[in-house]
Design brief:
- Keywords: Repeat.
- This is Nephrocystin 3-like N-terminal domain-containing protein.
- With 270 residues, this protein is α/β, with parallel strands linked by helices.
- The protein has 9 helices and 10 strands.
- The strands form 3 sheets. The protein has a 6-stranded mixed sheet, sandwiched between helices. A two-stranded antiparallel ribbon has the order 3-6.
- The chain starts with 5 loop residues before the first strand and ends in a 6-residue tail after the last strand.
């Protein structure tokens, strides 16, 4: 059955689219000889390798970064995205030709949409397939930007279907891709590790990091993709939408380049 597609403004400033350690030592092999009335002795010159401390510090920092990323990641972090089959050739390419998508991608007319594109449609109409197509397009064609994506999964584990899982995943991806972002996050990780035997992240503190500490962001332009918002509770959907819109507005206010794309079923009051 042929589907009709249209764009409309959601009223919230979004574009909406409807779809149907030790020290190393070495010695001088010859040494210096001292002549005395007694026997001769070799004096060995010990020195620290100029590479030892650097190598050990590098290894320590790498372990610390891996520990930090593991504290944010979880087993099924990308399982939903990976299970979505790719679109048939040419079936989703039309989205890139629409005026709304181009304005979102190119960040033109920001006063109308705050760099947020919201794709809406009934269940089973291919929104997730379209979102994976957009994600693949960003990875392939927008390599000058950093893309982080999250695909909610209602039938998955707790973190797969809650905003906490989303925010942990997005932050983890950004830390992996942007070293400057990781350096901003590192003091927070170190303080938390010192204070807590079991390191667990809360949704609010990760939101605060994205809103405040990343106002000095120095990395590549950002693209954030969030699919299937309706697979968490309706109250949580509103919270996620409010946060992402605030995030976009905050970034724009500080001159940062971010574009956000969401997908969900229709919500009459949003």
């Amino acid at each position: 059955m042929k589907r009709s597609w249209s764009f409309y403004n959601s009223g919230s400033g979004f574009f909406a689219h409807n779809t149907g350690s030790g020290t190393l030592h070495s010695n001088n092999a010859v040494g210096e000889q001292y002549n005395a009335t007694g026997p001769q002795y070799n004096h060995f010159n010990y020195y620290e390798s100029p590479f030892s401390r650097t190598d050990q510090e590098r290894e320590r920092l790498e372990r610390e970064k891996n520990d930090c990323l593991r504290s944010l990641s979880f087993n099924a972090i990308h399982i939903r995205r990976d299970k979505i089959p790719p679109a048939h050739p040419s079936t989703c390419e039309w989205i890139r030709e629409t005026a709304k998508f181009r304005q979102w991608r190119d960040r033109t007319d920001l006063s109308r949409h705050n760099a947020v594109l919201w794709i809406k449609g009934h269940p089973g109409t291919g929104k997730s397939t379209l979102m994976k197509h957009i994600w693949s397009y960003c990875q392939r064609e927008l390599q000058a930007r950093t893309t982080a994506a999250y695909f909610f999964h209602a039938r998955g584990d707790l973190l797969e279907k809650t905003p906490l899982g989303m925010i942990r995943s997005l932050v983890c991806q950004l830390l992996m891709e942007e070293e400057s972002t990781y350096q901003h996050f590192l003091p927070l990780f170190r303080r938390k590790k010192q204070l807590h035997i079991k390191l667990e992240w809360g949704e609010a503190e990760l939101q605060e990091f994205l809103l405040s500490e990343m106002q000095t962001y120095q990395g590549k332009p950002l693209v954030l993709l969030v699919d299937a918002l309706d697979e968490c509770s309706e109250l949580q959907v509103q919270d996620v939408v409010d946060f992402l819109e605030l995030l976009s507005i905050t970034y724009i206010r500080h001159g940062l380049n971010v574009s956000i794309c969401l997908s969900s079923r229709h919500y009459p009051n949003m």
